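Q: Hi! New to this. If I give you a protein sequence and the SMILES for zinc ion, can you show me the bound structure?
A: Yes, paste them in.
Q: Okay, here:
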Amino acid sequence: MSVPAAEITNSAALSAAAFICGTVSASFFTCIGSRIAAGKDWIRGRSTCDACGHVLSVRDLIPVLSYIFNRGKCRWCGARIPVICIVSELCLGFYFVLAVVRFGLGIEAFRCMGLSGILLGLSVVDLACYVIPDGFIAAGIIFWALTIPFYGSFWMEEGVQGLCGGVLVSGIMLGVSLLFDRLTGKESLGGGDIKLFFMTGLFLKPVRAAAALLLSCLIGLCSAVILKKRKIPFGPSISIAACLSMLYGSLMAQWYLNLFF
Ligand SMILES: [Zn+2]
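A: Thanks. Here is the predicted structure of the protein with zinc ion bound:
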């Protein structure tokens, strides 16, 4: 079976556009996250170099390309630009491509894109300060609610299933953390993590939310072992798990259930 050349050109153009949108989104949300982490005004003010304070121009702010052309350094003082900048831009670029490949151009891909940006922003703050700001949780909940009408006649089903997903995973994690805290006398999960489980559960609905819950624990555990740390921020693990489950959560849940039945 041959695929028409026009179709290949169209899908390549769509993937390229998705990749560029992903890198721009990553640049935007990393900037917001790092400004909040540094206690700066995240709405007003121009982007500056963290080391010398020089105001950055458009030439310094093109996602991926600026980092490559400036060899990962500030043009003015030569200070190294954090690697997380280009890593997050490339990751979100590829994630946007995966979203349109998996779902095509539609509401599901749009949800993946919006949610992944919000999750990147809050992960940047959590990595720096061990805090998940309520603003990101609220932004996620509002974004979820605004996308519900796009499901047309299924909007009610979508809304109810989303609420079930959110309540289910946040309820489970709240119960587990309360039990764990009682047994060990230490705080295991922060309130921000529980709220994050609720917010991502809205998008994932029960089955994919359960897959994300297991995956986030696995990622958190592996990260702690690899980094040899007793305490790590859990937000990034929950975020990565939620992003993967948005795309492949149903397949992961199916695979997991097949192990037992
Ligand atoms: Zn500089």
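A: Residues 49, 51-52, 54, 74, 76-77, 79 surround zinc ion (CB under 6 Å). Let me know if you'd like me to explain how to read the tokens.
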